[in-house]
Amino acid sequence: MPQSYAERSIQIARYFSWDVGEFESHLKDQKRRNDENVSSGKCKIPNFGKFFVTPFEEQMQVLEKKRIAEEATERLLAYRASPEGKREKAEKEKAIAADPLHPLYEMNQESLTSRIQFSEIPLQNYHEADSALGKVHRHCSQFAKTKHVGVQNQVDESSRLTQKILGTALVLLDNQSEENVLATKAQFEEVVDEAINEVQPEMKLMFGIKT
Q: HEC states along the chain?
């Protein structure tokens, strides 16, 4: 075996923490397989050094990539658990919650009731917010169907339009409303139609309010 391969073999043995017996066992096993390949004609140019080190070095590369990935994951988890990581997470969540147009913003009943008073009765207020979400989604679904695309594309498009239209409407309310003053149902309907005009002008208005 050439010296360069011999030195690489030693590095391999150290990496895998082989003792003398284990190193000798691997060496004999690979020598036997190499001789068989030469005898069968599978290996036309004998090169035992390369034959021995290549598979072990490939294993080392795989293990090193795995080790690096695991260490990166451990560092990330440790950072997230740290005061700084928790503070950063809280700041990101706060920024997302304050921006209805953020890609990660979760549009739900609370998104509406925190800005709009549909009813003075809390339970009815919640139900009307839920109903409003459903109405906008159904309206967007009906529009998506007119595009004559596949079912999954219709679902994706209706979800995208619902999120974008409601997000735009809530931003309009945030810009129009005074701090700590809830908008009325009529104001919500107005900004929904305004958002439809802005996001998808081809779509029929929901409430027929000209903007």
A: CCHHHHHHHHHHHHHCCCCHHHHHHHHHHHHHHHHHHHHHCCCCCCCHHHHHHHHHHHHHHHHHHHHHHHHHHHHHHHHHHCHHHHHHHHHHHHHHHCCCCCCCCCCCHHHHHCCEECCCCHHHHHHHHHHHHHHHHHHHHHHHHCCCCCHHHHHHHHHHHHHHHHHHHHHHHHHHCCCCCCEEHHHHHHHHHHHHHHHCCCCCCCCCCCC
